[in-house]
């Protein structure tokens, strides 16, 4: 039985390895979204935020609808990478903008991928939810560069993210998130693999 880590490792080596060579791309395992309300198995951050959610043979789809609600707000693109037994259900219930990739077992036990539906741009992306990937000090720094005085940035975090959504474009927010993640020295929550510029290291996530 292929489990999550089998598919994850194969996805990194067979489908995402070329992205790790791009200087303008981050590939992150287990990225928390909307203040860790949900985690996406693999996130690729470049011109958009593309999430890959793995549903292995060992998984069920009990949290599928709840995950989809968060992913639809926070991700620019989304691809479900599914064991064969989940493919039909995901194809029927995931919106048409979601990609679907089948992960099946080869003759020698390797993970083989087939793209059944390519991901397109998410029409429901919420830039305020996207901005929650910034820590508070990072959000304040961005708003100051937009000419907002620090004295007006002492309210709850949700007010900062609303303000960012009002004064920044989606591309500006993505660029700031990417720069912030590269500069973080300590991501507190759990180990993740963050790869960029042909470099892979272990850190702890926010």
Largest sheet: 8 strands, mixed
**CATH fold annotation of the largest domain:** Trna Endonuclease, Chain: A, domain 1
User: Which CATH class of the largest domain applies here?
Assistant: Alpha Beta
Q: Which range does the strand content fall in?
A: 25-35%
**Helical content (DSSP H or I, runs of 4+):** 25-40%
The coarse overall form would be elongated
How many domains comprise the coordinates? Answer: 2
* Number of extended strands: 8
What this model shows, in words?
There is one protein chain. With 206 residues, the protein is of the alpha+beta class. It folds into 2 domains: 4-125, Trna Endonuclease, Chain: A, domain 1, CATH 3.40.1350; 127-179, no CATH class. Helix content is 35%, strand content 27%. It has 7 helices and 8 strands. It has an 8-stranded mixed beta sheet with strand order 6-5-4-3-2-1-7-8, with helices on both faces.
Furnish the topology, listing elements before pairings.
Layout: H1 4-14, E1 26-33, E2 38-45, E3 49-55, H2 64-74, E4 77-83, H3 84-93, E5 99-105, E6 111-117, H4 127-131, H5 136-145, H6 157-167, H7 170-183, E7 191-196, E8 199-204
Parallel strand pairs: 3-4, 4-5
Antiparallel strand pairs: 1-2, 1-7, 2-3, 5-6, 7-8
Helix pairs in contact: 5-6
């Amino acid at each position: 039985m292929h489990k999550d880590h089998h598919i994850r490792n194969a996805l990194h080596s067979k489908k995402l390895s070329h992205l790790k060579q791009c200087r303008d791309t981050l590939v992150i395992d287990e990225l928390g979204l909307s203040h860790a309300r949900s985690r996406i198995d693999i996130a690729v951050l470049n011109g958009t935020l593309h999430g890959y959610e793995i549903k292995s043979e060992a998984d069920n789809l009990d949290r599928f609808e709840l995950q989809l609600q968060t992913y639809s707000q926070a991700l620019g693109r989304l691809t479900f990478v599914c064991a064969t037994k989940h493919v039909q259900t995901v194809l029927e219930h995931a919106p048409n903008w979601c990609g679907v990739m089948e992960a099946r077992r080869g003759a020698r036990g390797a993970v083989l991928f087939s793209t059944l539906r390519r991901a397109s741009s998410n029409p429901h992306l919420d830039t305020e939810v996207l901005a929650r990937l910034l820590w508070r000090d990072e959000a304040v720094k961005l708003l100051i560069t937009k000419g907002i005085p620090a004295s007006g940035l002492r309210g709850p975090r949700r007010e900062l993210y609303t303000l960012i959504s009002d004064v920044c474009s989606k591309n500006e927010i993505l660029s700031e998130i990417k720069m912030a993640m590269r500069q973080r020295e300590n991501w507190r929550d759990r180990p993740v693999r963050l790869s960029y510029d042909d470099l892979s290291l272990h850190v702890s996530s926010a």
